[in-house]
Amino acid sequence: MAITQYFCTALFVLSACFPRGCLSIQCYQCGAQDGDATLSCDIFVKAPMWRQFEVECPTSPAHLCGKTITHYEDGSEPSEVRGCAPAENAFQVPNRMGCGRDDGTDQTVFCLCGTDLCNGANRLPALPSITFSFVFVLNFLILRTFLSS
C-alpha cells in the first residue's frame, strides 16, 4: 500500500510539469531580434496557427513574455516585436506586468505578462492550458481513488 501511495504521489508531481519543465516560460516570438532570423509579426497576426512562433525562454535569469508596438510620427508602418523579456531590469528591480506607454517622439506601447504564450494577439485561450487542466483534474481523481482504497 505504501509503495502505491508513493508511486501515485510521484506520478502526480511529475505530471504537473507535463508536457515540459516547470521553471521556464514559453512566449511567442516575432519581429526584429538581434542577430536572429525570426518571422515577421505581420505574418504572426495573419497565421492560422502560431506553433512556429513559440519559443522557450531561458530559466536563468527569469523571463516574462513581452510585446512592443511602435507607431512612428512620420506615418510609416508600425513595428511590432514579441518575445522573451527579462523579469528584472538592469538594476535587478522586477519589471511590472501589464502595459505601459512611452510617449516620446514615436509612441511605443509595451506589455509584459507572466504566463505561457500570453503575448499573442486576441484569440481564444490556448489549448495547452485546457489540456493541463484536464490532466491535473484526472490525476487528482486517480490519486484520490488510490489513497481511499
From TrEMBL:
CDD domains: TFP. It holds the Pfam family QVR. It comes from the Eukaryota. InterPro entries: QVR-like, Sleep_regulator, Snake_toxin-like_sf. One of its GO terms (biological process) is regulation of synaptic transmission, cholinergic. This is Uncharacterized protein. It comes from Daphnia magna.
